[in-house]
Amino acid sequence: MRIRGYARENGSFGIRNHILVIPASVCASETASRIASRVDGAVAIPHQHGCCQVGADLVQTIRTLIGFGRNPNVGGVLVVGLGCEGIQANIISDGIRDTGKPIETVIIQDEGGTPNTIEKGVKLLEKIAEKAKEAILSEFDINELILGLECGGSDPTSGITANPVIGAASDILIGHGGSCILSETTEVIGAEHLLEKRFHDEKARRRFLEMVDDVEKKAVAMGSDLRGTQPTPGNIEGGLTTIEEKSLGCMFKAGESDFEGVLEYGEQLPSSKKGLYFMDTPGEDIDSITGMIAGGAQIIVFSTGRGTPTGSPIAPVIKLTGNPETYRRMKVNIDLNAGSVISEGKTIKEVGRDLFDMIVEVSNGKLVKAEELGHREFGIYRIGATF
């Protein structure tokens, strides 16, 4: 199956052509946002991080910011730094440069303050944008598509209808040679014994189980009980009672395919081995989506029983719900009513095919509700303290 997108110099394919402004740290985030606001088609990803981080936490933030810039949905990048932060702007730009896309940096302290930086940044970004506009839509095989699988604001219909629908669509894409990412390690607790059987690589299976175990140990080390946040108050009000119950519904997003491997948060999928992967992310939706997009996902499918408007700065987020009432109430934010399984007697496979067809349409340029409404939520998962 062929779809249309933007061929990148490194052999990857994007389904959008965004111009991205990356602040190297929180100290450059406001300046980055002001630069992006003055150039059509540009989007910034302000964040709280980039300085006084150490160890694996620092490495993870760097990997995530570089991953966003490397994502094939991005046609050009401007990195904005303060100058004295822990993550220097050149670290990010050097990690993106080999993709061949246009990339520039600007440093606030070198330019003598934010007004000069904004003016220079706008000029650089306009040049990047002109270069990115030269990208030509071309056909490519759907096996180049990486689909991120997400659920949030869940209720019982998520596990009964919406997540199985996602699983059916995931299996179709993998059947065409594409790739999918299952995430949300927290929401695997209680279902890991079922998912581990689908890893045919023993090393990957052991790492998967370590990831789940580490989440539980982290909560214990903090003197906390996961039951204070998982399920969330909204999950509980919707009818979910335990993390195990939530996890047993969450896992259906992975369909029936075997896992090819595991990924750290924001780690890039290997281009040589396609299929289903598990990525170690939190259950928090926006941080989880960020990790999958940094890993190369060009598109996200997101089930929500209670309803959520979440989008992304650079990737379309298809929203579906298994709850017909939620769809009626939040139709302005939700793209597909998987609740038709309940209200109209459709089968999981039928609606799964509908979702897959929508994935193809969106990959070919159709805007999702989150894009139409300008939702660009972005958040980086932290695994350590700020010092």
From TrEMBL:
InterPro entries: GD_AH_C, GD_AH_second, UxaA_altronate/galactarate_dh. The keyword Ligase does not apply. One of its GO terms (molecular function) is hydrolase activity. One of its GO terms (biological process) is D-galacturonate catabolic process. Residues 143-385 form the D-galactarate/Altronate dehydratase C-terminal domain. Signal peptide: none annotated. Keywords: Hydrolase, Lyase. Residues 5-132 form the D-galactarate/Altronate dehydratase second domain. The keyword Disulfide bond does not apply. Belongs to the UxaA family. This is Carbohydrate hydrolase. It comes from Youngiibacter fragilis 232.1.
